[in-house]
Amino acid sequence: MADRDGLIWLDGEMVPWREAKTHVLTHTLHYGLGCFEGVRAYSTDQGPAIFRLKEHTDRLFRSAHILNLTMPFTKEQLNEAQCRAVQENDLDEAYIRPMVFLGSEGMGLRADNLKVHVMVAAWSWPSYMSPEAKELGIKVRTSSYTRHHVNITMCKAKANGNYINSMLALNEAISGGAEEALLLDNEGYVAEGSGENIFIYRDGVLHTPELTSCLEGITRQTILDFCKDEGVPVKERRITRDEVYIAEEAFFTGTAAEVLPIRELDGRTIGEGKRGPLTEKLQSKYFDAVKGKLPEHSEWLTPVND
Ligand code: PMP
Questions:
Q1: Is 158 a catalytic residue?
Q2: Containing domain of residue 186, as a range?
Q3: Which of 43, 134, 251, 300 is deepest in the core (most CB within 10 A)?
Q4: Angular region, 228: left φ>0, alpha ψ -120 to 50, beta rest
Q5: In-domain check, residue 245
Q6: Is any atom of ligand 1 closer than 6 Å to the C-beta of 219?
Q7: Which protein residue has the closest C-alpha to ligand 1 atom 6?
Q8: What are the record keywords, sorted (predicted)?
Q9: pLDDT digits (tens, 9 = 90+) for 173-223
Q10: Could you tell me which of 93, 65, 96 has the C-alpha nearest to residue 78?
């Protein structure tokens, strides 16, 4: 990733990709206290456009606030930085990664002279899963790792260190032959995937875990917005893993995963064992929205060349 042409926005300047470096004593590298976003730009009739940029930037600022990091830039500057990262790397579609991290001015947990840095990189990242997974769905395993407890780490923050838990769970799931992990909260209720929120559909109602230990997903919110438009009843509540086994349909949502059907959990087939009709409808509406083909939600797109 590091050895390539291009430009990365770092602390207000566009820096050549290979020169966008930090010191080995970077505080966040040692203790994980930092926050980031995963944002995407899609190709639309108006050129590349960032999906729900405002919501992602708002969440980045909320994450920083939760972690007590003082942002050295405004939201407008960060929005502009994300547009520039896509534009100046000549990307038509892109994954965008803003990150807020502490510098190398001091070491140790008590360091109090640390500078808050911000970077934004953008690159093309074709598909998070195999293209067939979007239709056929993926195999998931319930993780042996518990999702964060709300008073162990801050679950509303998309904090760097929180992702140790995600990576342990994902690596375990993959080495066990599954494609993704389902993490349960400390009481045993369904929380989320390693980097996705989850929905299940049963008896005419879509269900998703309430926002306690899972991240306030922007794709999750997009699905809730669609359900409001379409009159699909939704319940945000506690869900058990066996409710997922007996669901008619289940799917993950996330900026990287988009709307991803789940065909199996812990060796149990879910519904027909492939993408169900409601999942298909919401997935195709999602692709229309991100590609600028949903006029009623055109406000979700920020063309980068404006
Ligand atoms: N949960 C976790 C743990 C995540 O990392 C992500 C990805 N940001 C999500 C859920 C989905 O969030 P979003 O739809 O905003 O990408």
A1: yes
A2: 133-290
A3: 251
A4: alpha
A5: yes
A6: yes
A7: 195
A8: Amino-acid biosynthesis, Aminotransferase, Branched-chain amino acid biosynthesis, Pyridoxal phosphate, Transferase
A9: 999 999 999 999 999 999 999 999 999 999 999 999 999 999 999 999 999
A10: 96
